[in-house]
Specification:
By secondary structure, the protein is α/β, with parallel strands linked by helices. It has 2 domains: 155 residues, serine acetyltransferase, domain 1; 108 residues, UDP N-Acetylglucosamine Acyltransferase, domain 1, CATH 2.160.10.10. The protein contains 10 helices and 17 strands. Strand 16 and strand 17 form a beta hairpin.
């Protein structure tokens, strides 16, 4: 199910409507899970079936995972749900991200799984809330969410970083995204990736990842450079220069080793270099 289908999701009062097939499917998944194992009844009721919409369920799940004595679940959920009222676009982005996981992750067989279990999805949605807070001028609350997310989900995404929708963070552990980084729509990023600077320079200093890019595990992309749309960065690469669109780069330092191999690397998730690409000097 492609992430773009989220653009047609019905909305009501700023939230994803109960008529939306994504939310209906998730509620059905929850009911079936209870039938199969009553041990999870409490989880399914609290995290899914007690909510009126998908985006509110996401807010609840994030609040339950990041709640602390200084900011308990009730207060955190109230704050996050109020952000959804202010900015309905958050709900659309969340839905697109959830669909992207189902579309690209072979380990995901139900829409309920990213909502309940996948920390890459949770880290990304936490960033969406933090980013909105940052631009509201509520920077301390945004940085607090970033700090909690770093601790719980093992990711470090600065609240200022701009991230499009339909983004898939696979596993996500060890992901670092700098403050002036840009990640456009329909990008897939695996664990251990760094989108960082090259030193102590200030200003616009982080990578720009264009639409449809696939970034393999452990890749380090450093500096204010551009990874062109639908490019592919091989696992373990250190990228110090801009990458043309629809090309594959690999190595330390990375260099172009061939074409991307398909029209949409982020969706195909093919991380294997062709034999002819491996025969480089």
């Amino acid at each position: 199910m492609p992430s773009g289908s989220a653009n047609k999701i019905p909305m009501k009062d700023g939230h994803i409507s109960h008529l939306d097939p994504l939310w209906s499917r998730i509620k059905l998944d929850a009911s079936l899970a209870i039938e199969q194992d009553q041990t999870v009844t409490g989880l399914m009721q609290q995290a899914v079936l007690s909510h009126q919409s998908f985006d509110l369920a996401v807010a609840s799940r994030i609040a339950s995972r990041l709640a602390r004595p200084l900011l308990d679940y009730d207060r955190l959920y109230a704050q996050l749900s109020s952000l959804l009222d202010i900015n309905p676009a958050l709900a659309q982005a969340m839905a697109a991200d959830c669909l992207a996981v189902l579309d690209r992750d072979p380990a995901c067989t139900r829409l309920i799984e990213p909502l309940l279990y996948f920390k890459g999805f949770h880290a990304l949605q936490t960033h969406r809330f933090a980013h909105h807070l940052w631009h509201m001028g509520r920077k301390d609350f945004a940085l607090y969410l970033q700090s909690c997310s770093s601790e719980v989900f093992q990711t470090d995404i600065h609240p200022q970083a701009r991230i499009g929708q339909g983004v898939f963070l696979d596993h996500a552990t060890g992901l670092v995204v700098g403050s002036t980084a840009v990640i456009e729509d329909d990008v897939s990023i695996l664990q251990g990736v760094t989108l960082g600077g090259t030193g102590k320079e200030t200003g616009d200093r982080h990578p720009k990842i264009r639409k449809g890019v696939l970034i393999g595990a452990g890749a380090k992309i450093l500096g204010n450079i551009e990874i062109g749309h639908c490019a592919r960065v091989a696992a373990g690469s250190v990228v110090l220069n801009s990458v043309p669109h629809n090309m594959t780069v690999a190595g330390v330092p990375a260099r172009v080793v061939g074409e991307a191999g398909c029209a949409e690397p982020a969706r195909s998730m093919d991380q294997i270099l062709a034999e002819k690409q491996l025969k480089i000097d």
